[in-house]
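Allow me, if you will, to draw on your knowledge of protein folds for a short while. I have a record of one protein: its chain in single-letter code and its fold written as C-alpha coordinates. Kindly check, if you would, that the fold set down in the C-alpha coordinates agrees with what the sequence suggests. Thank you for your consideration; the sequence and its C-alpha coordinates are set out here:
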Amino acid sequence: FNPDKLTLFMSLLSCKKISIKQVDRIQYHFLQIDGWAFTVKNFERKEKNSGWLISKLERMDNYQIDEYRKSVLNLK
Protein backbone atom coordinates (compact mmCIF):
# COMPACT_ATOMS: atom_id res chain seq x y z
CA PHE A 1 0.00 0.00 0.00
CA ASN A 2 1.43 3.36 -1.05
CA PRO A 3 -0.70 6.13 0.53
CA ASP A 4 -0.96 9.62 -0.93
CA LYS A 5 0.29 12.58 1.11
CA LEU A 6 -3.14 13.53 2.44
CA THR A 7 -3.87 9.99 3.67
CA LEU A 8 -0.48 9.82 5.36
CA PHE A 9 -1.01 13.23 6.98
CA MET A 10 -4.47 12.30 8.27
CA SER A 11 -3.17 8.99 9.60
CA LEU A 12 -0.37 10.70 11.52
CA LEU A 13 -2.89 13.15 12.98
CA SER A 14 -5.28 10.39 14.09
CA CYS A 15 -2.42 8.41 15.70
CA LYS A 16 -1.32 11.60 17.50
CA LYS A 17 2.18 11.35 16.07
CA ILE A 18 1.78 14.94 14.88
CA SER A 19 -0.54 17.75 15.93
CA ILE A 20 -1.71 21.04 14.48
CA LYS A 21 -0.74 24.01 16.63
CA GLN A 22 -2.14 26.88 14.55
CA VAL A 23 -4.22 27.43 11.42
CA ASP A 24 -3.94 30.82 9.72
CA ARG A 25 -6.50 30.33 6.95
CA ILE A 26 -8.87 27.75 5.52
CA GLN A 27 -9.92 27.37 1.89
CA TYR A 28 -12.42 24.94 0.40
CA HIS A 29 -11.97 23.68 -3.17
CA PHE A 30 -15.07 22.55 -5.07
CA LEU A 31 -14.61 20.39 -8.16
CA GLN A 32 -17.98 18.61 -8.27
CA ILE A 33 -19.77 20.90 -10.75
CA ASP A 34 -19.10 19.78 -14.33
CA GLY A 35 -16.88 22.24 -16.16
CA TRP A 36 -16.13 24.42 -13.14
CA ALA A 37 -13.75 24.68 -10.19
CA PHE A 38 -14.07 27.26 -7.45
CA THR A 39 -12.46 28.13 -4.15
CA VAL A 40 -14.28 29.53 -1.13
CA LYS A 41 -12.55 31.33 1.72
CA ASN A 42 -13.50 33.57 4.62
CA PHE A 43 -13.06 37.30 4.08
CA GLU A 44 -13.11 39.15 7.39
CA ARG A 45 -13.69 42.84 6.78
CA LYS A 46 -15.98 45.60 8.01
CA GLU A 47 -17.86 45.89 4.71
CA LYS A 48 -21.11 44.06 4.00
CA ASN A 49 -19.33 41.91 1.44
CA SER A 50 -17.64 39.69 4.01
CA GLY A 51 -17.83 36.11 5.21
CA TRP A 52 -17.42 32.87 3.23
CA LEU A 53 -17.21 33.97 -0.42
CA ILE A 54 -16.03 32.54 -3.72
CA SER A 55 -12.45 33.72 -4.13
CA LYS A 56 -11.63 31.95 -7.39
CA LEU A 57 -13.88 30.65 -10.18
CA GLU A 58 -12.52 28.88 -13.26
CA ARG A 59 -13.89 26.91 -16.20
CA MET A 60 -12.07 23.56 -16.36
CA ASP A 61 -12.40 20.41 -18.38
CA ASN A 62 -11.88 16.98 -16.78
CA TYR A 63 -8.17 16.94 -17.64
CA GLN A 64 -7.64 20.34 -16.00
CA ILE A 65 -9.57 19.25 -12.90
CA ASP A 66 -7.38 16.13 -12.60
CA GLU A 67 -4.25 18.28 -12.91
CA TYR A 68 -5.64 20.70 -10.29
CA ARG A 69 -6.18 17.78 -7.91
CA LYS A 70 -2.59 16.64 -8.40
CA SER A 71 -0.75 19.97 -8.41
CA VAL A 72 -2.78 22.17 -6.04
CA LEU A 73 -4.39 19.65 -3.68
CA ASN A 74 -1.71 16.90 -3.84
CA LEU A 75 -4.38 14.28 -4.53
CA LYS A 76 -4.20 11.44 -7.05
Notes: The chain has a mean pLDDT of 93. Helices lie at 5-14, 62-71. The first strand starts at residue 27 and ends at 30.
